[in-house]
Amino acid sequence: MKLRRSGRLVDMTNYMLNHPHSLVPLTYFSERYQSAKSSISEDLTIIKQTFEQQGVGSLQTVPGAAGGVKFVPGMHIEEAGAIIDSIKKRMAAPDRLLPGGYLYLTDILGDPSIVNKVGRMFASVFAERKIDVVMTVATKGIPLAYAVANDLNVPVIIVRKDSKVTEGSTVSINYVSGSSKRIQTMVLAKRSLKEGSNVLIIDDFMKAGGTINGMVSLLEEFQAKVAGIGVLVETKGVEERLVDEYISLVKLTGVDVKGKQIELQEGNFFDAAKRP
Amino acid sequence: MKLRRSGRLVDMTNYMLNHPHSLVPLTYFSERYQSAKSSISEDLTIIKQTFEQQGVGSLQTVPGAAGGVKFVPGMHIEEAGAIIDSIKKRMAAPDRLLPGGYLYLTDILGDPSIVNKVGRMFASVFAERKIDVVMTVATKGIPLAYAVANDLNVPVIIVRKDSKVTEGSTVSINYVSGSSKRIQTMVLAKRSLKEGSNVLIIDDFMKAGGTINGMVSLLEEFQAKVAGIGVLVETKGVEERLVDEYISLVKLTGVDVKGKQIELQEGNFFDAAKRP
């Protein structure tokens, strides 16, 4: 359909937002709107400036015949800070404390707007890495994994604790949970992951890192590589961390069940985000 | 920040897309851009026309002091048809057949772009109902539930087959699986659902409907109401369906394990979508 500039700007903005990390040839837009490439270029400059000013992300232009424009979702560092602050605040509510010192986070992980923001933060900090797939373990990490994968334009694979008939043949490993020291099993559908894939691991919570370490071992079975590790909450005071390089948004530094106190700090997200 | 019309259109489009089913007062935008309300109104008219023309959804204007503008995600019926066709095509691939006549759908449910489209379809068909929360059962329905909830701007709650310490106190029921006739348990965190809530149930697959029927019974324990039921795939040839009113995108009409044939038809989505 033929559209004027104002209509094109609205439609192109919607299109780019819905196709992150995809190279869109300029001819696609010039045919879509029956407009000259020079007009499309001008439109894209306006979108690029607005996106960068507002911290939505960047538009990267790839020149040449095989070129085009790519939207890379991002976030201003100030906005990321405000989001981490608000998550910390919500998580610190004393009524979250469960028997045994566990934290009730189900409502936070059930809020799509928080999940999307957390996903955007991980997608922006891992934007420059080569990532073919996002991996998580059932159940609580699933929404975060999809939010990240959505912004990176890659599929999600889900590791389970038991195999299901609808998964077909599976690969399973035994691993030792870092905190409880119990032997557990995790399972991944054989056909869900190609050999040599670059995998971003996302999860909601990391104590000693046993579960994530299990996922890393599982990846070895598939001859796949760890492209990065991101967790929403890490806990402090772990004797021996099984995982070295990871990015966390929030760090749980203290839980006082009797005094009903939950202490939280920023995770190491900003160390990574500030790196040039 | 002060923005010209072109920049405002880009930023407002992004803002509205990220705040579906939220009433945004016009003063929010006029303060955000330091622009007159009359200019904002003109901008919104352009966005509304483009969204409606392109099948992105509608912008609804609520007049008066407490008024504003609301983005209701939608989809053209032709696009919905094309999506259902492409899902049917992908699902019909013979290598999806697993022993026992089960279908491997993990890759389809692992593709965020498909999941988002399916979510948008359910969100548009249920757009006019009063919905406070989207409910699903772990694990496969989770991404679909979040996609729908995202477009409806409501939280997600997840029913589990076993209770976990991080959920706090729970309500559990026993139910009979419609196809296997086995007694099973499902569990929901007590504090995850308020009394009187209107709940949209979303799942990936429905045979006789035992699981969904179980969720309906669980809702009764919470004095909550079923606002609607949506499933990606329903199967035909079920003796007695336990659930009456639901919307399906695809119907599995035949599986021939020996001949490696999978037969699929459209679900009842269009009957509902075409209703005025």
TrEMBL record, chains A, B:
Phosphoribosyltransferase domain sequence ranges: 108-261
UniProt xrefs under Gene3D superfamilies: 3.40.50.2020, Winged helix-like DNA-binding domain superfamily/Winged helix DNA-binding domain (1.10.10.10)
Residues covered by the Bacterial purine repressor N-terminal domain: 4-73
Pfam families for this protein: Pribosyltran, PuR_N
Keywords associated with the record: DNA-binding, Transcription, Transcription regulation
Superkingdom, taxonomy of origin: Bacteria
Transcription regulation recorded as keyword: yes
InterPro entries documented for this protein: PRTase-like (IPR029057), PRTase_dom (IPR000836), Pur/Pyrimidine_PRTase (IPR050118), PuR_N (IPR015265), PurR_Bsub (IPR010078), WH-like_DNA-bd_sf (IPR036388), WH_DNA-bd_sf (IPR036390)
Assembly and oligomerization: Homodimer.
Family: Belongs to the purine/pyrimidine phosphoribosyltransferase family. PurR subfamily.
The protein's name: Pur operon repressor
Organism: Metabacillus sediminis
